Amino acid sequence: MTSSDYLKDIKEIKNLMNKSSRFISLSGLSGIMAGIYALIGAWFARQELIAVYDKNAYHYTNSITMKLLLIAAVVLFLAVVTGIILTQRKARKNGEKMFDKAALKLLINFLIPLATGGIFTLILIQKGIIGLVAPTTLIFYGLACVNASKYTFGHVKFLGYANIILGLISTQYVGYGLYFWAIGFGIFHIIYGGLMYILLERTAK
Fold it and tell me: Has residue 2 been placed in a domain?
């Protein structure tokens, strides 16, 4: 065997190890769509806040809080459903299983910080500390991405770092949380998903 054959074998072994330990069927298009949903949701949320402001009663009531939570829930639902559909399509195309040990590890490591952040966010809302909701969701989502990056594409952690930094910055601009939320969950997702699709999926076709 020549040295090139050895290198080829090593590369194939490395690819097999990555496939067995990492979930690599994530779709870049799902990131783009999640970002679009987030921007649309942010627009609807802003309309609700403007309506309250126009009534000279710019304060958070139970009614406006429930509307904002409903918008966030719809955005999350659409993003998750779209992500599952597109990821399943990519996995089928690549001849891979969508649910395996790597996918389970990815899901667990992603959900632990995310669920913790979700519960903490609800506590903030319960206590009336609305100004820290956007920073908290950005920070914990970023931590979830960093934690899950060990079981999928490693560069997912950069999306996590960006959201963590953005969340920390937004703590200094309470009252503008919706804009930071739109940047983190909207624009960052579109940019990351677009780069992922162009560099990893489109070139692989």
Answer: no
Tokens of 200: 């990893």
- The answer to whether position 16 is within a domain reads no
Q: Please check whether residue 188 lies inside any domain of the structure.
A: yes
Q: Do the Cβ atoms of 193 and 35 come closer than 8 Å?
A: yes
Tokens for 1, please give them.
């065997």
Over residues 1-46, the pLDDT tens digits come to 454 543 444 444 344 444 444 655 677 888 899 999 999 999 998 8
Residue 60 has a CB neighbour count (10 Å cut-off) of 15
Distances in Å between the Cα of 149 and the Cα atoms of 14, 33, 47, 50 are 18, 20, 35, 38
- Range of the structural domain that residue 171 is part of: 26-202
**110-141 burial: b if 16+ Cβ within 10 Å, else e:** beebbeebbebbeebbeeeebbbbbbbbbbbb
* CA 184 – CA 121 distance, rounded (Å): 17
Q: Which residues contact 130 (CB under 8 A, 6 or more apart)?
A: 60, 65, 124
Number of domains in the chain: 1
Contact, 133 vs 177, CB < 8 A?
Answer: yes
Q: What is the pTM of this model?
A: 0.80
- Residue 4 in domain: no
Model confidence pLDDT, tens digit, residues 142-198: 999 999 888 877 788 999 999 999 999 999 998 899 999 999 999 999 999 898 888
